[in-house]
Amino acid sequence: MTAIPREPRIGIAGATGAVGQEFLRLLAERRFPMKSLRLFASSRSVGKRMTFGGEELVVEELARDAMTGVDLWFFSCGASRSREFASVATAAGGVVVDNSSAFRLDDGVPLVVPEINREAAVDGDGALVAPVLANPNCSTILLVLALAPLHAAFGLRRVIVSTYQAASGAGDQAMRALLADTRSALEGEPSDECRAHFGQPLAFNLVPQISDFIADGPDAGSTLEEAKMVHETRKILGLPQLAVDATCIRVPVLRSHSESVTIETEEPVTVAAARDVIAAAKGVELVDDPLERRYPMPMDTSERDAVAIGRIRESRVFDNGVSLWLSGDQLRKGAALNAIQIAESVMTS
Amino acid sequence: MTAIPREPRIGIAGATGAVGQEFLRLLAERRFPMKSLRLFASSRSVGKRMTFGGEELVVEELARDAMTGVDLWFFSCGASRSREFASVATAAGGVVVDNSSAFRLDDGVPLVVPEINREAAVDGDGALVAPVLANPNCSTILLVLALAPLHAAFGLRRVIVSTYQAASGAGDQAMRALLADTRSALEGEPSDECRAHFGQPLAFNLVPQISDFIADGPDAGSTLEEAKMVHETRKILGLPQLAVDATCIRVPVLRSHSESVTIETEEPVTVAAARDVIAAAKGVELVDDPLERRYPMPMDTSERDAVAIGRIRESRVFDNGVSLWLSGDQLRKGAALNAIQIAESVMTS
User: Fold this and answer.
1) In A151, B48, B58, B186, which residue has its Cα 20 to 30 A from A124's Cα atom?
2) Does A249 touch chain B (CB under 8 A)?
């Protein structure tokens, strides 16, 4: 029976990245109970010093023989490293909360947003059903936080979502590249640092490609990011046939993702009823007073936990349906916060 | 019988604005036939000098007694000035192509995108049906250029569109405000120039409000911009009942608008068939080779005439339908270019 002890020895794999740094901030901010904390990264970051709760920690190399003595791992080091090291971590008795796409759609691996489907991770006795728990894609987490309560209240039939994704989704260096290219564009001496991170220039531009394109099969023509939004949403909501059209666009914003969402529902839905449902839902905040210019914006949601949802309107396209606009911190609820909440939700059981 | 002479005396009202400057560039670039050109603006710009074809022109005040002797007016001076001055211009014998929202939905005022509905502006003898011709909203022009050929081929049933609109839609000073606020954000000394133009900060932010919100009636909860996209699209396409959900978002881009569009069609539609239709359509360019990283982006469409359309995929949400992504220069085809093309299309008749 796999379980996380109440005061675990914690390891963060990928500690020096944008999500890794957010893990450190959030573990401190939430006073996450722990016996010890170790930081791991690739060889080029070994020896780097990072602070946690006033203490200085030295980054170790993520290597097979260094992975013992850790009860709870937060992995944020990319899918290929997750595939390489997750089984090493679990063989040594650790539980892994994995932020990559490596295992998300695997049968037997719970894909968890605790407000929605904590029960996917634990059995009737409160024990973990698997030693690896998957943290969903950032855009998907934000989306399902809006969809799940609306599904419970009105039943979901179709979802059309267009994203406005920040640079942070591509990591710390990508954010710096956006800043650098923006600065040089303003100075009239364009630089081209964004291309390495986004495939294209991003300063004052939009890039309708996030991750690689899929060449064949039912997802052909979509990017991996768009396919993730479709398949992960279905798995988290337990709706394997849910009709989802996702278009993922990178925008020159630093760290909050936003999404324009239109849904068709089974039951009639009014703006007032949808607002009530969102206002009562967990993990989200209703920010919807347009005449007072209150609506979700990345500048307001960055470095905040709750996903802001507003601009709720009745659909003209569907007899039953609403459109809405949401914004949430990609590094927090979209990544590190949700992973920590997964651990918290199964520890307190 | 109202008509524009083959070599008209031209007046531009609002010549000093972003769209006004684009008029000057495009009239020169297209060698638009003319006998004379006069520039008008509000009193604070009177006396300003602007160049056209190597010649220096002095800006005059847009005033009732100055509006004689002009055969063809391009108005780009805001809805309230259009309401005030259009009838003065037409009473003096001029034809007005108006870029504001003042008359767009009026019965008897043709709302024209020449590639789509030139015939709305002229009768069987080629005479103008009205002395005021309306230029549609910028986002609407880009949208209908994609929708019209797809409608002709497959029949439109429903349209869901989310926009990514550039600063240029709010004018020249708004573009400068975005540059200024971005520069000061990078320098760590935030300024707040965008608020006056966009209602909110825009540097590294997204603003889900373009124009004012509508408080009552069937469009309640939408912005004026969103309502324009619904009603103008219906009028241009001649589909008064077309179901359209529009969400308009301002993004920190300088001058090309982009849109994520999902449509349901009457007839079955494949990606290949939709691409063929777009490739053959006027005013647009198919840019759709994702595996080669070719897709529409604002950086590529700015200062270009054609609206780029790509990322065409079959919809999962509709049995018959596609999604697509488009980008087009808001100041060109979204404003000045379309207005000039309206004049050209009725002059050559």
Assistant:
1) A151
2) yes
- Record the tokens describing residue B222, joined without a space: 């939408």
Distance of CA B48 to the CA centre of its chain: 26
| Confidence check: pLDDT of B87 > 80 | yes
- Asked whether the beta carbons of B329 and B256 are under 8 A apart, the reply is yes
Between CA B181 and CA B336 the distance in angstroms is 27
What pLDDT is stored for residue B1 in this prediction?
54
Helical segments of chain A, H only: 18-29, 79-91, 114-117, 138-154, 172-186, 195-198, 224-237, 271-280, 298-301, 337-347
Contact between chains at A317 and B160 (C-beta distance less than 8 A):
yes
Interface size between A and B, measured as CB pairs under 8 A: 153
Cα–Cα dist A99/A75, whole Å? 6
CA nearest neighbour of B304 among B268, B333, B279, B346: B333
Instruction: With H, G, I as helix, E, B as strand and everything else as coil, classify residue A45.
Output: helix
| The CATH number fitting domain A9-135+335-347, selected from 2.60.130.10, 3.40.50.720, 3.40.50.620, 3.20.20.140 | 3.40.50.720
C-alpha–C-alpha distance, residues B55 and A191, integer Å: 36
* Per-residue confidence (pLDDT) for residue A53, from 0 to 100: 86
Contact B163, B259 (CB under 8 A): yes
Q: Determine the average pLDDT of the residues in A21-35.
A: 96
Report chain A's C-alpha Rg in angstroms. 20
Structure tokens belonging to residue B136: 């549609």
Dist. CA A133–CA A118, nearest whole Å: 11
| B96 touching A (Cβ < 8 Å) | no
Q: What is the DSSP letter of A73?
A: E
Catalytic site positions of A: 138, 257
Q: Decide yes or no: CATH 3.30.360.10 for domain B139-330.
A: yes
Q: Which of B165, B98, B109, B107 is nearest to B135 (CA)?
A: B98
If you search the block for the tokens 């039951």, which residue do you land on? A267
> How many Cβ atoms are within 10 Å of A309's Cβ, its own excluded?
30
Task: List the one residue out of A83, A81, A84 whose CA is nearest residue A20.
Answer: A81
Whether B88 contacts B64, CB under 8 Å: yes
Cβ–Cβ below 8 Å for B317 and A244: yes
pLDDT at A349 over 60: no
Residue ranges per structural domain of chain A: 9-135+335-347, 139-330
Residues 105-134 of A with CB under 8 A from B: none
A111 in helix, strand or coil? strand
Give the C-alpha separation, B277 to B257, whole Å: 22
Q: What phi and psi, each to the nearest 5 degrees, are found at residue A214?
A: -95, 125
- For range B149-167, the mean pLDDT: 98
pTM exceeding 0.90: yes
Q: Among residues B156, B86, B79, B143, which one has the least CA distance to residue B113?
A: B143
CB–CB of B57/B10 below 8 Å? no
Arithmetic mean of pLDDT over chain B: 96
Three-state DSSP state, B177 = helix
Closest CA to B144 of B246, B73, B220: B246
Please say whether the beta carbons of A265 and A321 come within 8 A.
Answer: yes
Q: Which residues pair with A51 in a beta bridge?
A: A56
